[in-house]
Amino acid sequence: MPLNNRLKEHRARMGINQQQLGSMVGASRQTISLIERGDYSPSVTLALKIARVFGVAVEDVFSYTED
Prior knowledge:
The chain is mostly helical. It is built from five helices and two strands, in the order E-H-H-H-H-H-E.
């Protein structure tokens, strides 16, 4: 049940790195990296904070697909 994301794409569009995004949402660079790789699913709160930084709906950053 993977949670897919377009986090790296949105970061690149804004011109920010993982450390900067982490600081903006109260997470570590390592957490942002894990989310981007698909090795960690963020909490609902963190997903909403990330979407807010990008100015998009959470569904524009994250999508869920069933196996």
